[in-house]
C-alpha cells in the first residue's frame, strides 16, 4: 500500500472516529468542550494534505509533467467547469489524483441546460439535463483496468438547498465511504507509459466494457450519468499516474483540436477527432 493510499485510509478512519466521538460525547455527557473533538477532523485534513504534497505537489515546477495530448472523451457542444486551465488543483485539492481534473456539461444549444435555481425546484430528474445519456468515448487506445457499475443516478442538486445538502452532508458521507462512492459508476483506462484516464459519474447500466478489455480511441465506453458525488449529470475526467485514484497523482492533458477549455467556456468536439499515435 502506497503512502498516499495509506493516508486516504487514515483520513477516512479519522473522519469516522470524529463522528463516533461526537455521538458518544452527546450520549454520555463527557466533561470537556465538545469542540475539542474537532481536533480529530483537523488531524484528518492535515494527514491527507501532507501526503498529497509530500515530495512536491503534482503541479509544482519540479514535479509537473508535460501535458499528454489525447482525444476528447465526448462529441458535440459542451461547457467546462472546475477546469485546470484556470487553476490547479482544479477541484481545490490534490487528493484522488484530481489536480488536473475537469468537469464538462453538455449544452447542445445555448440555454438547453437547466439553470441553477436558488429555491425551486429543489431538484430535477437527471433526464432533464442534455448530458444525461450522452456517449462517453475512449481518449486513446487503452486497456480497461477498472469498470464499476451499479450505483443509481440520483436527482440533481442544482438549487441552494440541494447544493448545501451535497456539500455539507452527502459529500461528507461519500468521502467517508471511500472513492467508489465519490466517483459513482466509473471507468479507469491504462493508456500506457504510467498514465491512466478516469471517467466518473457514469449512467447506471450503460458501461459497454469490462476490466481487461482492450479499447480504441473514439470507442463508446458508457453514457454520461449522475451517480456519485455529483450535483447534476456531467462527466468528471482526469489523467493520473496510477490506476487507484486514492494513491495517484494528477497528470496534465490537452485534447486534440481543443486544448483545455476554461471555466464557462463552450467547445465543440467533432466525432472525427482522434488522438495522435
TrEMBL record:
Membrane-traversing stretches: 34-55
CDD domains for this protein: M23_peptidase
One Pfam family per UniProt: Peptidase_M23
Limits of the M23ase beta-sheet core domain: 170-241
Keywords: Membrane, Transmembrane, Transmembrane helix
Keyword Lyase found: no
GO terms assigned for molecular function: metalloendopeptidase activity
The protein's name in its UniProt record: M23ase beta-sheet core domain-containing protein
Amino acid at each position: 500500500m502506497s503512502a498516499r493510499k495509506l493516508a486516504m485510509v487514515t483520513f477516512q478512519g479519522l473522519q469516522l472516529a470524529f463522528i463516533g466521538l461526537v455521538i458518544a460525547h452527546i450520549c454520555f455527557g463527557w466533561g470537556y468542550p465538545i469542540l475539542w473533538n474537532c481536533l480529530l477532523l483537523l488531524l484528518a485534513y492535515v494527514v491527507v494534505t501532507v501526503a498529497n504534497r509530500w515530495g512536491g505537489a503534482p503541479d509544482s515546477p519540479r514535479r509537473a509533467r508535460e501535458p499528454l495530448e489525447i482525444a476528447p472523451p465526448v462529441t458535440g457542444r459542451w461547457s467546462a467547469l472546475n477546469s485546470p486551465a484556470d487553476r490547479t488543483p482544479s477541484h481545490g485539492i490534490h487528493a484522488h489524483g484530481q489536480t488536473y481534473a475537469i468537469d464538462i456539461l453538455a449544452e447542445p444549444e445555448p440555454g438547453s441546460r437547466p439553470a441553477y435555481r436558488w429555491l425551486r425546484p429543489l431538484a430535477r430528474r437527471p433526464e432533464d439535463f442534455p448530458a444525461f445519456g450522452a456517449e462517453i468515448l475512449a481518449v486513446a487506445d487503452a486497456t480497461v483496468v477498472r469498470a464499476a457499475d451499479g450505483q443509481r443516478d440520483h436527482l440533481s442538486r442544482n438549487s441552494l438547498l440541494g447544493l448545501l445538502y451535497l456539500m455539507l452532508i452527502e459529500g461528507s458521507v461519500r468521502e467517508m465511504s471511500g472513492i467508489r462512492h465519490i466517483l459513482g459508476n466509473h471507468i479507469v483506462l491504462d493508456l500506457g507509459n504510467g498514465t491512466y484516464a478516469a471517467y466518473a459519474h457514469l449512467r447506471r447500466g450503460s458501461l459497454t466494457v469490462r476490466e481487461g478489455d482492450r479499447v480504441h480511441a473514439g470507442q463508446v465506453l458508457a453514457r454520461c450519468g449522475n451517480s456519485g458525488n455529483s450535483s447534476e449529470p456531467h462527466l468528471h475526467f482526469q489523467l493520473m499516474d496510477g490506476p487507484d485514484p486514492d494513491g495517484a497523482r494528477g497528470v496534465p492533458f490537452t485534447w486534440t483540436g481543443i486544448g483545455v477549455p476554461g471555466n464557462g467556456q463552450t467547445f465543440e468536439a467533432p466525432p472525427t477527432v482522434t488522438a495522435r499515435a
